[in-house]
Design goal:
Layout: H1 2-22, E1 40-41, E2 51-56, E3 63-71, E4 76-81, E5 86-99, E6 109-111, E7 116-119, E8 125-141, E9 146-147
Antiparallel strand pairs: 1-2, 2-3, 3-8, 4-8, 4-9, 5-6, 5-7, 5-8
């Protein structure tokens, strides 16, 4: 049965590629195995201590992107918002998220492994990792975040 499903799936791939070629888009397939993810320090827009891996696209440009953020236990992201929809899937650990204009540990809700969330543009939220936590973020760029309190921005001197 597994082989029948695999053969059926593979049979559909050429028609998908052909459809992409007719539309003018270049066909592509991206496969990133967990052990091959290229982690690097997260960009300065995020607090120090996290690592980021871009697995598809370029989050700084217009177009689709997928990236993963790996955070140590206790890592916090102050209250912020995004100009576009942010899609989040919890891959590892527990991602604790709260809504509002300032970080409030009492209002954090726990998102366990496998949770999916989509936040509309402008939704003010904050987060904290419980255990080493990995989330996958995807959407249509450019991706950025704006801190509700500008003093929380880690790019500011003294942060």
């Amino acid at each position: 049965m597994r082989y029948a499903i695999l053969i059926t799936t593979l049979a559909l791939v050429p028609s998908t590629a052909a459809a992409q070629n007719q539309s003018g888009a270049e066909p592509h397939a991206i496969v990133v195995l967990p052990g091959k993810i290229a982690w690097a320090p997260a960009p300065p827009i995020l607090p120090r201590g996290a690592e980021l891996a871009v697995v598809e696209g370029d989050p700084s440009k217009a177009g689709a992107f997928t990236m993963r953020l790996r955070m140590p236990d206790g890592y916090r992201i102050p209250a912020h918002f995004h100009p576009v929809v942010e899609h989040v899937t919890v891959i590892q650990g527990t991602f604790r998220v709260g809504m509002g204009d300032k970080f409030d540990p009492a209002s954090l809700g726990e998102l366990p492994i496998g949770t999916f969330a989509a936040l509309a543009p402008g939704v003010r939220h904050f987060a904290q990792a419980k255990g080493e936590t990995v989330i996958q973020l995807h959407g249509v760029g450019p991706w950025t975040l704006t801190y509700v309190n500008p003093a929380d921005d880690p790019r500011k001197p003294g942060q």
